[in-house]
Amino acid sequence: MRICVIYRERYSAFLRALCVFAVKILSSVTASIHGLLRQRWLVYGLLFLAGTALAALPYRQLGSPPPTVHDEFANLLIADTLLDGRLANPPHSLHQLFETFHVLQEPAYVGKYPPGQGLQLAVGQWLGGEPIVGVWLTAGLLAMAWCWMLEAVTPRARAVALSLVLVIYEVAATYWGGSYWGGSLFALSGALVFGGALRLWRWPRFPWAAAGWSGIGAGLALLTRPYEGFFFCLVPAAAMAWKLGNFARQGLLRRALAIALAAAVPLAGAAAFVLAYNHATTGSAFVFAHQLYEKTVMPDRGLFVWDKLGAPVEGRPPEMDWYFRDFKPGQWGQADFRMVDVLKRVVKIDLRMLVQMFLPWWLWPFLAAGIVAALLRRRGARLALATLFTLLLVMASVRWFYFPHYAAAWTAPVAVLAATGERELRQLTAKKMGSSLLPGLWWLAIFAFVLADYAPYVKAEGSITSVPLEGSNFRNLWRARFFEGPMRQREALEKKLLERALAGGRGQVLVVEYPPDYKREIEWIHNGPDIDRQSVIYARYRDAQTIPLLRSYYPNRDLWRARLTPDGTLQGSVELIGP
After folding, report:
1. Mind spelling out the 3-state secondary structure of 57-87?
2. Would residue 98 count as lying in a domain?
3. Which residues contact 99 (CB under 8 A, 6 or more apart)?
4. Which range marks the domain in which residue 127 is found?
5. Whose CB has fewer CB within 10 Å in the chain, the N or C terminal residue?
6. Closest Cα partner for 568 from 488, 508, 510?
7. pLDDT digit string (tens) for 401-460?
8. How many domains does the chain have?
9. pLDDT (tens digit, 9 = 90+) per residue, 546-555?
10. Are residues 371 and 279 in the same domain?
11. Is the pTM for the entire model greater than 0.85?
């Protein structure tokens, strides 16, 4: 019995010593973390590295992911054009044979989209040798910007945690971080605009810096998605104007003008670039390339609710005509358009998309508390809630709003609302329960879920078909399986033709013939900015004159003919039809 008591005492002493050791270790780790968090720029640097690495990690073996959808090829065309030192390319004399989706052929040959995404890809190609590097670097910048923005409403430790969660869930594990389509750059612009407005409104400590970052964000929005960016900037701009008005009323007019100038300079620079780009691509500084494209290629389709539809373009290739006529939802080409149809679409499709991408279930408690905080006159939460309402205005003003990257900037007010709600819950539980353990456990659950959601993409090493999709998953639309087969075939065929061109010293031309009943959104005709200097050229078979025209124009190239099946894959092998 005495021996048992001795062992029990020794065991209790051992447990006490172990607990003391664990507390010391935990205290040491906590002190180290707090010491690290006090190094502001070191934290931002680590966030940049983490965001970049998290976006690139799924592609550590695959390398640069292949482009799949039309929009990606159009953005890559813009990037290649900018890398060649031009804003636009001259139209090709045989441009009817190179016509493709989302690419303007006249008066200039260029992608129809604003230049922001192309600039991002061009920077990636210039710095890292691959366009996708620009997307990964933007993920790192976005992690930094989210943290900087959130520090205006919550302590740095929780700002870092929420930034990492968001960059994993909304960038690294979605097409925003693994495609050429867009999303991360517009999200970055939203974080800069909203973060600057929050800091100027609540913390006028460094007002010029806050206004300058907001101006840079607004410039990025103008370069990337000018229409949605305009609506997004309305509430932050109004908040900044109100603050500057307060400065002026306090007799600080010169200070107010200096702050306004800090925001206006980068925005003016972006506006000047856009005007020059528009003039080079459309011939008018005030006409965007996508406006001219819709007017000349698809006048029978409308984007905005007030658009009046015209007659279809004569001579449009049948496979492109089907896409514009039947593939998109009926509202896109609905002559007897009704506003109630847009409202139904907003409820059935758009809001479901927003919930999947921006409002995951694990953020709901924080968001609910953030909404309550907004009703209790918390300035940051009220500003975030008001900005979110502008997204509804955007969705109600267009006939077609389907993809999450259209609304990427609005991740900023969602994050601020969640951070404000988390702070309110933490304070409430600390007051009522004497401990903030419950929010801490919820944070652990969030990290566990987000990492479990991200893990399949790391294991799959970027493979499009290896990750299971459930129904219509808006977070990974670019991974749709129906693009996999045709695009892989196109990539493999291009490599073979490129090897033949390098070995024989003769360029190659691949004439692609679509079947009469072709009704797929898969497109093979994609070329670079200088078509005649490409080793492999893709041309569209239009009629019996197509091959003689190409043979006459390219006498020193080999001509190949590829016939496609109705599902977009090759029908048999390609046929050499002569030099």
Report:
1. HHHCCCCCCCCCCHHHHHHHHHHHHHHCCCC
2. no
3. 105, 317, 320, 525, 540
4. 45-68+120-296+338-460
5. N
6. 488
7. 778 889 999 999 999 999 999 888 888 887 777 666 777 788 888 898 898 888 877 776
8. 3
9. 999 999 999 9
10. yes
11. yes
